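Why should sequence recovery work at all? Because a backbone constrains its sequence more than one might expect. Tight turns favour small or flexible residues, buried strands favour hydrophobic ones, and helices have their own preferences. The token representation captures these environments compactly. In the example below, the structure is given first.
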């Protein structure tokens, strides 16, 4: 019987992790005991201590898992739907992903042997489920990293006024990410997270202030009257445009599956909910602020990403300030994707935590494979941006909504014959709704992404693979 087959029987409750003491089958381990862990085994002197992250470090890692360049797409969400519907979409998705993030902690409490989404896949779907998530989760993170590589190349081109071939900047992103993502524990990565968080928030603050004090956006007519076309409700929008906006917001919150890595490396998993609520509150407030302010001042003359909305000089400054944050984001995406594969390969072996040749060869090799794949995807697919939207609409929505709703139902539906309370029935209905809403978003978001790819071809905006062209002019 392997580790994934040694599942804990019992219900995932609806309360905090603070009251949980869930042993693995041999009774040795406790989810809140940092010295003994169901995934990493007993802590040994001189070995890698993965369970070393406090709740503040966890909050920062979670924040940087979610807040990346996607935050700068929030104004386009309001532009597509109008200020009121756009704000409500952000609030609704924020609420849903806060719950699904809470479910991640509950599921880890009830199944302490689960480290990442491959373990979830085994519990939900057996061996086929495990293999699906073993492929899907790292690939999702690899696509996110590839998207980040493109964003880094845009930033370098903007700052240097197209100082060299764009592929060269992507190589710089790849090498830098490999060096940073090779850091072994999330506790150490969280140090970078502070830098990245301050970097991105500073860039957001710069662009928010700049669009507020400027006379008019750069792309607006610079003389004479001009109409921003700011709507409380955009009646000119289309259904696909609206669903594209919903997919964008879901994609921007879709770091939830990586929270398994976070709670799995916390010293005290009972503090996970505190970190989650701080993270989600800051993320939602940031998304609403950047979305409302930039949309109000720029209207139809938005740049996407929003860093280009306030002129060339501000754009250069904002991208320069945002660069560290972009590097940290792709570092975390690469790290958590590679870590899942690494743990799966060495689980049950002394090499998982020992500083052995096998340990380092597998770890560095896994990170290297992830960054190389991210580089190839970012440069070889000419419609990569649209493809990322497609992957976000499918895998992102599946893992941060459908899978999480399914997780709660898997561990709680067995109580339906004993628990007839309205509270329990409401939770069942809520999680069924999350699963069905996720399926709807997958279908409509995929539709919108495919139409976007088709339109990109028809307008000739598709570039060639491994292009040296400047990609910052439209940003």
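From this structural description, the recovered sequence reads:
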């Amino acid at each position: 019987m392997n580790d994934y087959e040694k599942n804990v029987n019992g219900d995932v409750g609806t309360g905090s992790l603070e009251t949980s003491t869930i042993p693995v089958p041999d009774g040795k381990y406790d989810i809140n005991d940092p010295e003994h862990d169901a995934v990493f085994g007993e802590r040994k002197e001189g070995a890698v201590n993965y369970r070393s992250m406090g709740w503040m470090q966890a909050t920062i890692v979670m924040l940087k898992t979610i807040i990346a360049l996607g935050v700068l797409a929030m104004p386009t969400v309001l532009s597509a739907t109008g200020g009121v519907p756009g704000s409500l979409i952000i609030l609704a998705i924020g609420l849903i992903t806060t719950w699904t993030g809470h479910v991640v902690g509950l599921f880890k409490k009830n199944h302490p042997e689960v480290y990442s989404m491959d373990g979830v896949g085994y519990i939900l779907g057996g061996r086929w489920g495990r293999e699906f998530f073993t492929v899907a989760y790292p690939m999702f993170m690899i696509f996110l990293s590839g998207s980040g590589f493109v964003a880094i190349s845009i930033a370098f081109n903007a700052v240097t006024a197209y100082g060299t071939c764009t592929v060269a900047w992507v190589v710089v992103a790849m090498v830098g990410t490999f060096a940073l993502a090779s850091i072994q524990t999330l506790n150490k990565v969280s140090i970078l997270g502070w830098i990245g968080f301050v970097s991105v928030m500073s860039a957001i603050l710069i662009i928010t202030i700049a669009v507020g004090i400027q006379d008019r956006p750069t792309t607006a007519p610079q003389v004479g009257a001009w109409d921003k076309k700011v709507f409380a409700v955009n009646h000119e929008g289309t259904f696909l445009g609206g669903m594209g906006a919903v997919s964008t917001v879901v994609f921007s919150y879709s770091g939830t599956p990586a929270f398994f890595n976070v709670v799995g490396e916390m010293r005290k998993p009972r503090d996970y909910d505190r970190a989650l609520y701080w993270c989600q509150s800051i993320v939602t407030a940031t998304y609403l602020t950047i979305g409302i302010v930039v949309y109000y001042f720029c209207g139809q003359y938005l740049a996407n990403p929003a860093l280009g909305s306030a002129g060339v000089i501000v754009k250069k400054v904002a991208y320069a300030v945002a660069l560290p944050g972009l590097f940290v984001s792709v570092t975390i995406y690469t790290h958590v994707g590679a870590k899942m594969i690494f743990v799966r390969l060495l689980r049950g072996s002394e090499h998982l935590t020992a500083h052995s040749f096998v340990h380092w060869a597998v770890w560095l090799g896994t990170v290297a494979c992830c960054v190389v794949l991210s580089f190839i995807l970012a440069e070889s697919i000419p419609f990569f941006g649209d493809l990322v939207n497609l992957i976000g609409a499918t895998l992102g929505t599946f893992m941060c909504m459908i899978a999480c709703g399914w997780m709660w139902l898997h561990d709680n539906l067995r109580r339906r014959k004993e628990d007839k309370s309205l509270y329990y029935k409401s939770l069942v209905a809520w999680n069924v709704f999350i699963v069905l809403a996720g399926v709807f978003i997958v279908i409509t978001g995929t539709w919108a992404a495919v139409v976007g790819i088709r339109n990109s071809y028809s307008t000739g905006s598709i570039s060639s693979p491994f292009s040296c062209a400047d990609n910052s002019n439209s940003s």
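A few observations help interpret the result. Residues 1-28 have pLDDT under 50 and may be disordered.
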